[in-house]
């Protein structure tokens, strides 16, 4: 036996790492070393138990978490031992499984992954409405059904209200449409593999033989479908370790269910349950505040959490006059604190409830020339120019992807108009073909004028030539040697004259910044294709995953981290600034509070507050050494100033007097004055 394992583990952690007698659940509060157990266990399996990398799969919640875990494992074991190891999100594993087993799932290996906008577009078409609220509601309902493993038949049976019946009807057509496009949506990336493993014994056996040990982080946020996938991958041997914290379950709105925690001991009577109670992350004060908040929630599992770190500095709560003032003060305080503590930018994080809060903070940070990165925003991949370029790539990879066809065929404008596309669409529907395939049909010639047809064919042939260069081969043939993705990308952009299109259709400044984004995308794609040896086809699917929760920021530069509370899960920062800690924002109150049955509404409100409280708990427990909260007395909403109250969660932290700790001398100064003072001091030295 080796001596590598026990280092840096307390007795229950060690027990969890060494336990290989069957399924194992580590249930523990924030910062107690659950993720550490996973990385150490991977090292143990590789180094001491003779497991091969390719037989171990570890699942995490975000790409970033997966990357961090991967790096940790690489520092623990020799590179050659970790070869073939899978550390990924559920979705990335789903893509891999689907790509390898595409045939069995009725897909081709280059199936498309639709983003939320495309999916929304399809739902919109099917519902024939532009009412955003209704569209979102239907899409959300379908998504929840998928996450609960229901197919259209199941959904129809489960539907009760008229709007659910409508959603079930849309679900059926939506599923058929996706199938016709050879496309899947995000939810399918889990659902389809789970189905496949369930129904196809050959596939199931293959994967169960491959996955000899499975580890799952953040288990509390899995949904029914993900749990099913875990069960199917591990089979009767049930060799897995799951770690989680019911107090950090924050994805119920996406179909995650804490039931999965409760079910585990029932489904696996031999389950080994291990609790961790020592927190290694936060100073006493922060931990105490976190514990006080979460105590108000009903308990699923009893847990104690203690820390033997120092008492720590007081937690600071600052009321602000407005969002602008809050953003400005936060930037100033960070700047001053970094200077005072001789810290680095990356020691700081700003946490907020909603993506839209980031813009004003960004502005304030930029004003002070503070470097920052944003996680959890979808901004980059949602940008029109990025989606334009990706539409081409998707179409090249999968010419049955009709949404990609329409976007690419019309951007930049090349004389293919709405009328032409409608005729084409009708023809394709009659003949049960993709738009792309329909372009080459003789039958189309009678329906379109020669000039319209010509334009379509020029476009489709252009795409075809790139497909060949990308190694697509003739239909049905295996891909042959491909040109490097980078070369193809450059040629593609030049051929469609995308840069010129930008300058033709908008002012110089926005055109310039959009072109910069495109260049950023292509250089990132090139790097990825070189580093990971991905073909253009694989790249396209890879990109779709990155869009899901975060943008693919690779290394950690020295920059302040801005992140939503949701995206901060599992991470830790020395100094945390939580902004907008006020009623209405945290707890968040959606406009569309459940109407109708008041009892149901009250229940949903109560459980919603509980989930928001867990989110607060997650936020507080990200902080290692200092924690600063702020809230705005007024906040601007649709050109109206709303009067705001501090979040109930602040009261619940039980800070007492500790919340007015700034000493008189510095409090009298504005943050700006204080910063200037500090800078002056620096110059003197
Ligand atoms: P979260 O619930 O937020 O995901 P977690 O339970 O996964 O937290 P980790 O991130 O694994 O906790 O650990 C928190 C911090 O404590 C990390 O910096 C980790 O390195 C450290 N840590 C964990 N276990 C020990 C230990 N036995 N000795 C020293 N430090 C530890
Ligand atoms: Mg963790």
Automatic annotation (TrEMBL):
Q: Which residues form the UvrD-like helicase ATP-binding domain?
A: 7-283
Provide the reaction this enzyme catalyses: Couples ATP hydrolysis with the unwinding of duplex DNA by translocating in the 3'-5' direction; ATP + H2O = ADP + phosphate + H(+)
Instruction: Keywords in alphabetical order, please.
Output: ATP-binding, DNA replication, DNA-binding, Helicase, Hydrolase, Isomerase, Nucleotide-binding
Q: Which InterPro entries match?
A: DExx_box_DNA_helicase_dom_sf (IPR013986), DNA_helicase_UvrD-like_C (IPR014017), DNA_helicase_UvrD/REP (IPR000212), Helicase_Rep (IPR005752), P-loop_NTPase (IPR027417), UvrD-like_ATP-bd (IPR014016)
Q: What is its EC number?
A: 5.6.2.4
Name the positions where ATP binds: 28-35, 281
Similarity comment: family membership: Belongs to the helicase family. UvrD subfamily.
Quaternary assembly:
Homodimer.
Please describe what this protein does: Rep helicase is a single-stranded DNA-dependent ATPase involved in DNA replication; it can initiate unwinding at a nick in the DNA. It binds to the single-stranded DNA and acts in a progressive fashion along the DNA in the 3' to 5' direction.
Protein's name according to its UniProt entry = ATP-dependent DNA helicase Rep
Source organism = Achromobacter aloeverae
The primary gene name is: rep
């Amino acid at each position: 036996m080796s001596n590598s394992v026990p280092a840096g583990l307390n007795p229950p952690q060690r027990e969890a790492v060494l336990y290989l007698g069957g399924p194992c659940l580590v249930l523990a509060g924030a910062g107690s070393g659950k993720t550490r157990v996973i990385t150490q266990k991977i090292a143990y399996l590789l180094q001491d138990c003779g497991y091969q990398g390719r037989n171990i799969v570890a699942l995490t919640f975000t790409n970033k978490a997966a990357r961090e875990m991967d790096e940790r494992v690489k520092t623990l074991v020799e590179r050659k031992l970790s070869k073939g190891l899978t550390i990924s999100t559920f979705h990335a594993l789903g893509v891999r499984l689907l790509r390898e087993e595409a045939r069995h799932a009725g897909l081709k290996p280059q199936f498309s992954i639709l983003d939320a906008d495309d999916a929304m577009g399809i739902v919109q078409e099917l519902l024939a409405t532009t009412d955003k609220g209704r569209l979102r509601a239907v899409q959300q309902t379908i998504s929840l059904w998928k996450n609960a493993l229901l197919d259209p038949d199941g959904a129809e049976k489960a539907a009760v209200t008229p709007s659910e019946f409508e959603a079930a009807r849309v679900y059926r057509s939506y599923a058929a449409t996706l199938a016709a496009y050879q496309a899947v949506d995000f939810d399918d990336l889990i659902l389809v593999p789970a189905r496949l493993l369930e129904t196809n014994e050959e596939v199931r056996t293959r994967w169960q033989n491959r996955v000899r040990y499975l580890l799952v982080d953040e288990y509390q946020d899995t949904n029914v479908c993900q749990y099913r996938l875990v069960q199917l991958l591990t089979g009767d041997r049930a060799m897995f370790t799951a770690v989680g914290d019911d107090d950090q379950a924050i994805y119920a709105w996406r179909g995650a269910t804490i039931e999965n925690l409760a079910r585990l001991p029932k489904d696996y009577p031999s389950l080994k349950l291990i609790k961790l109670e020592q927190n290694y992350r936060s100073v006493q004060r922060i931990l105490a505040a976190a514990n006080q908040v979460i105590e108000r929630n009903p308990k699923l599992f009893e847990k104690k959490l203690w820390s033997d770190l120092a008492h720590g500095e007081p937690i600071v709560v600052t009321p602000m006059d407005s969002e602008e003032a809050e953003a400005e003060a936060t930037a100033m305080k960070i700047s001053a604190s970094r200077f005072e503590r001789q810290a680095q930018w990356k020691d700081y994080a700003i946490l907020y409830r909603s993506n839209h809060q980031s813009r004003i903070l960004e502005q304030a940070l930029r004003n002070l020339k503070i470097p920052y990165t944003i996680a959890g925003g979808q901004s980059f991949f949602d940008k029109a120019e990025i989606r334009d370029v990706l539409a081409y790539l998707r179409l090249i990879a999968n010419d049955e992807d009709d949404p990609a066809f329409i976007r690419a065929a019309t951007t930049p404008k090349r004389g293919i108009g709405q009328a032409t596309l409608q005729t084409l669409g009708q023809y394709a529907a009659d003949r049960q073909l993709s738009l792309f395939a329909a372009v080459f049909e003789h039958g189309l010639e009678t329906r379109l004028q020669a000039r319209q047809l010509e334009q379509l064919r020029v476009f489709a042939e252009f795409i075809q030539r790139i497909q060949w260069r990308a190694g697509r081969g003739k239909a049905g043939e295996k891909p042959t040697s491909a040109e490097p993705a980078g070369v193809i990308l450059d040629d593609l952009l030049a051929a469609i004259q995308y840069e010129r299109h930008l300058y033709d259709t908008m002012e110089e400044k926005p055109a310039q910044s959009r072109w910069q984004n495109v260049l950023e995308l292509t250089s990132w794609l090139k790097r990825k294709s070189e580093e990971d040896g991905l073909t253009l086809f694989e790249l396209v699917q890879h990109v779709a995953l990155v869009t899901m929760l975060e943008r693919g920021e690779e290394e950690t530069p020295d920059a302040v981290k801005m992140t939503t509370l949701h995206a901060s899960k599992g991470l830790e920062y020395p100094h945390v600034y939580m902004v907008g800690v006020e009623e209405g924002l945290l707890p968040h109150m959606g406009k569309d509070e459940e109407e109708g049955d008041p009892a149901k509404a009250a229940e949903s409100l109560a459980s919603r507050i509980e989930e928001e409280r867990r989110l607060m708990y997650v936020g507080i427990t990200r902080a290692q050494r200092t924690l600063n909260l702020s809230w705005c007395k007024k906040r601007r909403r649709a050109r109206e100033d709303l009067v705001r109250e501090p979040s109930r969660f602040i009261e619940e932290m039980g800070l007492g007097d500790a919340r007015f700790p700034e000493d008189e001398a510095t409090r009298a100064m504005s943050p700006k004055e204080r910063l200037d003072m500090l800078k002056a001091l620096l110059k003197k030295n």
